[in-house]
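Re-running Yip1 domain-containing protein to confirm reproducibility after the cluster update. Everything else is unchanged from the original entry.
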Amino acid sequence: MDPHDKDQTPYGLEPVEQPENPMSFFQKAIYVFIHPVKAFEAIRLKPDVFFPYSVNVLVSALFALLTMNLMRDYTLDTLAATYQQMGVDIPANELQSFVKMTMISSVVAMIVFSVLAPFIKGAFAHLISMAFDAKTTFKRSLSVVAYAYLIMMLGTLIRIPIALLTENYLFTFSPALLLAGAAPTDPLYAFLSAFDLFTIWYLAVSVIGFKTVHRLKTWQAALVVLIPFVMSLFSSLIPALTGTA
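Result of re-run:
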């Protein structure tokens, strides 16, 4: 902790200096899209995580609910094709039961991931920013990621009507869309899907966020954001590199 940093308490937990008229959650959420520097200046003075995290969870749940029929059909077709390739015959009722269990676990996993992903990314980013001697708090790091993640949620909301109209559960705004018939578990699909337009937008805004809130240089903020991203890319390629795709 820097004793001369006026933005910290003696314990470095919360900023002391508060804006006269702090932005509301809705104002910060809007400015993240149209004026991210202004949004993150407000977040630096008064970080918050509850409302942006709640939006992330609600959007993920909404996507799962509205695309459930597409998910069921996709899961059923995938399982049937898999069993057929294995030369295994399975009764229709057992297949339907297994599809139901798979869907429930997938929906739960999707919602849990919407909570854990920003938290884990925020934790990694905070640790890396500490290596650059950033004068900040863990709450600020989580708040930066949570608000930047709203861009990802916008992409999810736009995906819903397109997926329903095209009946394509795997619709994506990334080069992975060009891989017709590829499964999400395919290493190349997982790699290309990481370069979604909204993901790139989210990364750029995250760099602005960590630069603004943590008072880092641009290259330092870029490393804080991109190191976890590159690690996730590498993890998607592990099956292909180890021959277990």
